[in-house]
Design a protein that fits this description.
The protein is α+β, with helices and mostly antiparallel strands and about 200 residues long. Helix content is about 35%, strand content about 20%. It folds into 2 domains: about 150 residues, no CATH class; about 45 residues. It has 6 helices and 7 strands; from the N terminus they run αβαββαββββααα. Strands 1, 2, 3, 4, 5, 6 and 7 form a 7-stranded mixed beta sheet that branches. It is globular, with a radius of gyration of 21 Å.
Length: about 200
């Protein structure tokens, strides 16, 4: 699907925001490997394998070039490290409120055996008030700011609300159908109906 959207919009910046199911090195490689890369933003496991970038190649050295450098401490280890410097930040959070958080971040190579490592920028977030669990997020766009990465991920809230209201009011995913063709007809129709209702409500 990502490849098809990129073909439709060959030069338009695209940021794909997904939950933890999208946090896979193989999928990230697919996104950044397109002729015009798609930026992937998702959660990152606190035990993800992160590495330094490989050192500069020595002149005259034979053999294959290393794909990664030394292994870095895990994010969980850094969280527990008392010397880790947490930076305060205020961002637009879910439901339109502003929330005070603390973060630290970095750029690393994310590696899974069997695949090439992926350069990512990661952000670890904790709630000084203790209401939210400490989590990590990443982007394949190394130029994105920490605030931008978090803001992109928070935008998922609008999608989650849309799906919840579609299920509650229009019965999406409850249709009694056993044909793929029927699903491809009715599900887009329900989404279209939802859009019409929302636009009508905005005019009231």
């Amino acid at each position: 699907m990502i490849k098809q959207v990129r073909r439709w919009l060959p030069n338009h910046p695209i940021v794909l925001v997904g939950d933890g199911a999208y946090a896979a090195v193989k999928f990230a490689l697919c996104c950044i490997g397109l002729p015009t890369p798609v930026s992937l933003v998702s959660r990152l496991r606190l035990d993800a394998c992160l590495y330094d970038f490989p050192p500069p190649e020595q002149p005259g050295k034979r053999g294959p070039k290393p794909k990664k450098g030394d292994k870095q401490p895990s994010l969980l280890e850094r969280i527990k490290d008392q010397s880790t410097e947490w930076i305060p930040i205020t961002i637009d959070w879910y439901e339109g409120i502003k929330y005070d958080l603390e973060i630290f971040s970095g750029i690393s190579l994310w590696y899974t055996p069997g695949f090439n490592p992926v350069p990512i920028k990661w952000v670890v977030v904790r709630d000084p008030a203790g209401k939210l669990r400490t989590e990590a997020f990443f982007s394949t766009d190394l130029e994105a700011s920490e605030e931008q990465i978090l803001t992109w991920f928070v935008l998922r809230w609008n999608i989650e609300v849309t799906f919840e209201e579609l299920r509650a009011h229009l019965g999406v995913e409850t249709q009694r159908q056993w044909s793929d063709l029927a699903i491809t007809r009715t599900t887009p129709a329900l989404f279209g109906m939802f859009s019409i209702v929302v636009l009508m409500a905005l005019e009231l």
